Structures are given as structure tokens and as C-alpha cells.
Amino acid sequence: MRLSPLLLALALGGACATAVAAPAPAPADWSTRERKQLVQYEVALAAPESRWLEVVMTVERPRGRRSDVALPAWIPGSYLVRDFARNLDGIEVTDLAGVSLPVERLDKQTWRIGHGGKGFRARYRVWADEPGVRTSVVDDSHATLNGAGLFLYLVGETARPAELRFTGMPANWTVHGALPQPSPGTLRASSYDVLVDSPLELGTPVVHAWDEGGTRIELVFSAPGGSNADPERLARELRPVVHAFAEAMGGLPTKRYVFLMLADEKSDGGLEHADSTLMRVSRDMFQDEAGYRRALHLASHEFFHLWNAKRLRDAALVPYDYSREDYSRLLWFHEGFTETVENQMLVRAGATGPEQFLQELATAWTAYLQKPGRNHVPLTQVSVEAWVKQYKPSPGHFSTTVSYYEKGHLVGVCLDLELRLRSRGKGSLVGVFRRLMASHGARGKGITFGDIVAAASAEAGSDVRDFFRRYVEGTDELPLPAQLTRMGVDVEIRAPSAGESSPLAARRKQGWTGIVFTDNAVRSVVPGSPAELAGLLPGDEVIAVAARRTRTGEEAAERLMDHAPGQSVEVALFRGGRLLQRTLTIAADPRKVFRFTASRTPEPAVRELRDAWLASSPR
Ligand SMILES: [Zn+2]
Q1: 240: CA distance to ligand 1 center in Å?
Q2: Residue 303: what are its φ and ψ, rounded to 5°?
Q3: Domain spanning 32-203 has what CATH number?
Q4: Distance, CA of 481 to CA of 500 (rounded, Å)
Q5: How far is the CA of 298 from the centre of ligand 1 (A)?
Q6: How many A from CA of 272 to the centre of ligand 1?
Q7: For residues 68-93, average pLDDT
Q8: How far is the CA of 351 from the centre of ligand 1 (A)?
Q9: What is the CATH number of domain 503-588?
Q10: N or C terminus of the chain with fewer C-beta within 10 Å?
Q11: Residue 370 to residues 363, 402, 425, 429, 539: CA-CA distances in angstroms?
């Protein structure tokens, strides 16, 4: 048997740390007051392959004569009701001497414990079989744990400090995450919020650590089942990105930050936390440069969240209400602008060249202009709707809403350019974040829409309320191309068929139906398109085009493009089990493809503005 170097490192339980990294700060012992308030959790991993985690919650000094305990309905950062209580089983409560206490279930996620003022223990178990960045999984190779789905909280008393202890862990496993560990397997959190804001990876991951201006940075790479990634390369590429952020933001506001990267069956994005992130990537995606690039984008995005969304948090989400939807009107800011800064910091770090940055921006703009729902409702409303739309997609959303990530990112780019143009290069989007950190984040104050507008106006040197009124509270088309021209960037607009070297390929790209296919069905239909005029609907299963059988959406799209604009074609489809026939007339493709390139002959002042925007300063 041969083991890859990675597997070998995993088999040896190998954790390697570079010598320069500062050691993890040792936590001070609990004060007497904290000890009295302590909520203790013990998680038994005696039979990890069973997927059940046995949890014991101990409260030695409860308040009053009875306490309500509950499991969150959602996890901060992911705006969807997940009802974690669905995985909880068999809650039993005793006093500290083991005598049973009465428990009443109040609703789907809350229990009332009658303890008469005495200390109590609640025992329950949790089914953990959902790998992901918002959920928990345990098996015999590792455990990825998210506290929101595991730990009951004392309703109204989430400020109490918490201590967490693992028992029955396989001997070669270690525990990784942002929580300090006074001894292996015992972790401390200053509050319930901190406890559930600190995902943990248990197992035998590879660890790379380094120092960034006095902050210990860790990359914890966990690949149960192996991966084609080189974690050392990931750490090497991440270093200048972390440095670029630190430089741009004036230092890191934490002594330790942990990138937890889980590589397994599929990519699942990342979730932000104050001092860490949990990312999930496909174990096989590192076969080419694109895989490393995706991982770097993901890490860059999550890292900026340590400021935006964590230390700069919508005042409406302070404190979090775990029991139900907690509404924010600022998700375009928390998520969209994070994407803007994520991309920019990769340029700063030298990971993205200026040409590539402009090309990626052009691709994003091209795709965005093809979204019929982009200006249907304002971003502030899209943000509130996240709970029922962003995470609960329906075909009807195609023309009625837009992703606050996608549009928020482009609004972030437009705001950045607006600030640079107005202030003649003195202000920027990152400057807005620095201002908000000084006025709010560093003081633990939540931010409001008005605070963002005020910080942006200060950065611009003039009132930018109108920008927010038009593009965030309103639905005006974004001014990106005009702004780019003023920034010394050439904007080229072409037909989708232009640039095709083969005449046949160019001819086939001239037609348009307005159908977006999934594997074998119509996913969406562009309003006013030939498909809509022909009466096609999302969900239709296209089975033949021009009397010839098609087996996949891709094949149907190819057969439709056999026909030139103006030609009619018969489409056979199943809808709700009924066979239907529709006639579709191919139209000329109205879509535009954008190309952004740095102008060769800008005015010197414009060149200076542009170069400052696209400058890199790698370490
Ligand atoms: Zn995010």
C-alpha cells in the first residue's frame, strides 16, 4: 500500500506548524463570578460511527425556580430556518444528584425545566450526519461540529460563559477551532454567542500556522478520505492575501484566526465567524489552477467577514435572536460588499492581475445584465426576503428578485468607483470599512443603513445619499460602464457571436430562445423571449426538438440552435405528465457581452486613479 504525502501526514496525525507563528494565547482561568455563571457542555464521542453525539448540559446555578432551554432555529450567517431541533432526541433532566426533574416541551425547540432553584443536568443526543459549513457530522474519521445545532441555550441568559469538554475521542484526534483550549479537549467560550460562533474540526488534520503582525493565523486542512490538494501551497498562497487585508484595514483586530478547510465530497462554500471560518471544498477540485483559485477566493471572502458581518454587524442583528428569523436590511452590504473587497484584496496580494480582474468584472457584469429580476425590487427588500427567497429558490424568482451577493457585489464596485472619482483618489470602499470599524466595530456598536451612508459620504468628501437612494433603496440600472470610462477603462460591447473564429460557431450563436435549462427540464424562461411567447414554462421537460428526440437540456439547446433567427421549430414536452407540442420562433440574440480593458491613453490624472484602484502590493 502506498500513501500519498497528505494521507501519510493524516495517518500520522501530523500537525506541522512553522516556527515563526506565535503560540495560541493561553486562556486565563475563570473568575469566581464567571465560574458561578458557567454553563458546561460535555460531548461524548464514544461511538462516532453511529452518528449520535451524546450531550450533557450542566447548569450549577440556574436563575429562578425554572429555566427554559432551546436549540436555535438558524445559524448566524445563513439566513434560513433550519430547525436544528429536528436532530435532537430524548431530553432527560436531573438535579446534580441524579434525581429526575420535570421537563415540559413548550414548542418545536424549547423545553421548560422545573429545577426549583437547584443545579440541573440535561442529557440528550443529537443526530449528526450532515456534512456542511452550517451543520454537523461525525464519523469514525473526523467530526465537523457547529454549536448552533448541538448546544441548548438558556433562554434569556446567552451571556453566560460556557465550557465544552469532549470525552471518548479517538486517541489520535485533536480539536481545532477558534476557542481557546486550556487543556486538550476542553474549550472555553465567553458566551453562548461565542460558543456557537466557533465551529470545530476534530480529527487528524494538517495544520499550517504563521504570524501576521502579531496575530497567529492557522490553516487547518481536514481531508477525511484524502484530497489532491497541497495544503502547504494553500497556506503559501493565503499568506499574502491575509497580509493585504491587514495592510488595507490597518491591522487585524484579533490575536488568532483559524481557517478551517474541510475537503470532502463536494464544495459547499464557507461560513464566517469572528475569529475563524469553516469552508468546505471538493476534495478533488485541486487538480488544476482553477481549484486553488476558487479556494483562495473563498478564503479571501470569509476572511473579510471577520470585519464585515462579524465586528461590523447590522444593529438589527445585535443580539442575535436564535428562536426565529432575524431580519437584516443590510445583507447586500454584509455579503455583496464582502465579495467586492474579496476580489480587490486578491489584486492587492498579487494573486489576480489587473487584466484578469477587469475581465472577471466584465464577465460578472455580462451575466448580471442577463438577470431579468435585477431591478425588480430594491436591495434593502431583497435582503429582508432572504429567508424566503435567497435560500428557498423557486422558478418565479428569476424575474422577480436578484441575489444580494451578485448585485451587492456590483453595487460595491460602483460605490468604490464613485468614492474614488468624487474624492480624486483619496477615498475608497475599504476606507468606508476602516471608518466604520473606528466608529462602531472597535466599540462593539451595531451599524445602521445611515451609518454606512455617513461613512461613505465622509470618504467621498461629499454627500453620497443619492447613490444609495438610487441603487440600494431604488432600482436604477447600475452606472458601471460610465464609471469605468471615467476611470480610464475601455468598455467594449459585442454580440455573443462576435469573436467566434469559426463561421459555423458564430452562426449558431446568433439565435436565442430565452430558455435556461437544468439537466433535463426548463429551469427558467426569460420574460418576453421566444420561449415565453411560445408558452414554455419552468419545469417543462423537453423531449424532442423538430421531431427529433432530445435526452438532456444541453442536447435540446443544441438542437434549437440548429435553427437560425426567424425560423420556427416544433418542441415536444411533458408538463405534469401530459405531452404537449409548442411552436417556438428563434430570435436574434439581444444579449451583450462586455469586455473591460485598461485604456492605453488615459489622461495622467485618470491613469493615476486607475492605477491606485488596480495596484498590487504583494509582500
Ligand atoms: Zn459571505
Answers
A1: 20
A2: -65, -40
A3: 2.60.40.3650
A4: 24
A5: 9
A6: 7
A7: 96
A8: 20
A9: 2.30.42.10
A10: N
A11: 11, 11, 32, 26, 20
Longest alpha-carbon distance in the chain: 84
**Inter-residue contact 253 to 442 (CB < 8 Å):** yes
Give the pLDDT confidence score for residue 482 in this predicted structure. 98
- How many residues belong to the chain? 619
User: Do 331-488 and 503-588 fold alike per CATH?
Assistant: no
388-394: long-range contacts (C-beta < 8 A, 24 or more apart)?
A: 390/79, 391/78, 391/79, 391/80, 392/80
Q: What percent of the chain has pLDDT over 70?
A: 95
Strand pairing report for 515-517 and 522-525: antiparallel
β-pairing, 541-545 vs 522-525, is unpaired
Distance 140 CA to ligand 1 centre (A): 30
Rounded distance from Cα 78 to ligand 1 centre (Å): 9
Ligand 1: centre distance to CA 274 (Å): 12
Give the residue among 400, 349, 610, 355 at the shortest CA–CA distance from 525.
Answer: 400
87 CA → ligand 1 middle, Å: 26
The one-letter amino acid code at 34 reads: E
Instruction: Please tell me the distance between residue 335's alpha carbon and the centre of ligand 1 in angstroms.
Output: 5
What's the CA-to-centroid distance between 209 and ligand 1, angstroms? 23
- Three cell numbers written together for 604: 495622467
Residues near 417 by beta carbon (within 8 Å), at least 6 away in sequence: 480, 483, 484, 486, 487, 613
Q: How far is the CA of 309 from the centre of ligand 1 (A)?
A: 8
pLDDT tops 60 at residue 134: yes
Ligand 1 center from residue 301 Cα (angstroms): 6
Q: Which one-letter amino acid corresponds to residue 52?
A: W
Determine the distance separating the centroid of ligand 1 and the alpha carbon of 599, expressed in angstroms. 32
- CB-based contact 305:298 (threshold 8 Å): no
- Domain extents for the chain? 32-203, 208-306, 331-488, 503-588
* 3-class secondary structure, 175: strand
338: CA distance to ligand 1 center in Å?
7
pLDDT given at position 508 = 87
CA 2 – CA 100 distance, rounded (Å): 54
SS3 340: helix
Rounded to 10 degrees, what is the CA torsion of 419, 421, 425, 430? 20
Q: Looking at the domain 331-488, which fold is it?
A: Neutral Protease; domain 2 (1.10.390)
Sign of the torsion formed by the C-alpha atoms of 441, 443, 447 and 453: negative
pLDDT of 158 reads 97
Please list the alpha-helical segments (H only) found in 107-181: none
Q: Which helix (H) or strand (E) holds 237?
A: helix 231-249
Q: Domain 208-306: what homologous superfamily?
A: Neutral Protease Domain 2 (1.10.390.10)
